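Entry type: protein chain
Record version: 2
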Amino acid sequence: MARNSTSTNTDSLSERLDLYAEVTQTILAQMEGGTLPWTRPWKTTGAAGLPTNALTTNRYSGINVILLWLSGAMKGYSSSRWMTYLTGHAGGWACAPR
C-alpha cells in the first residue's frame, strides 16, 4: 500500500511547530520571571560551551543547542555533555531509562 506523503509532511510540520511553541513558551516564562535567557549572568552555575554528545564529542546544532541549554539551566546540570539512553548503553555506561 502506498504511503500518504501529505499526512507525513503534516505530522512533521505539526511536531516542528510544537517544538517551536515549547521553546517560545520557555523563553517567555523566563522573561516573565525576570530572567533574560539570552544574557549571561556574571557568575554562571551551569555548564559552559556548546552542548556536545558525550560519546562522540560532536557538537549539537540548530534548535537543539537552545533546547539543551534551556534544559540544562532549568535542571541545574554542571556538564554540557548529553546523550540518549541508547548512546550511553553503546558506550558501556550504566543508564536507567526514564
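Comment: The beta strands are 52-53, 81-82.
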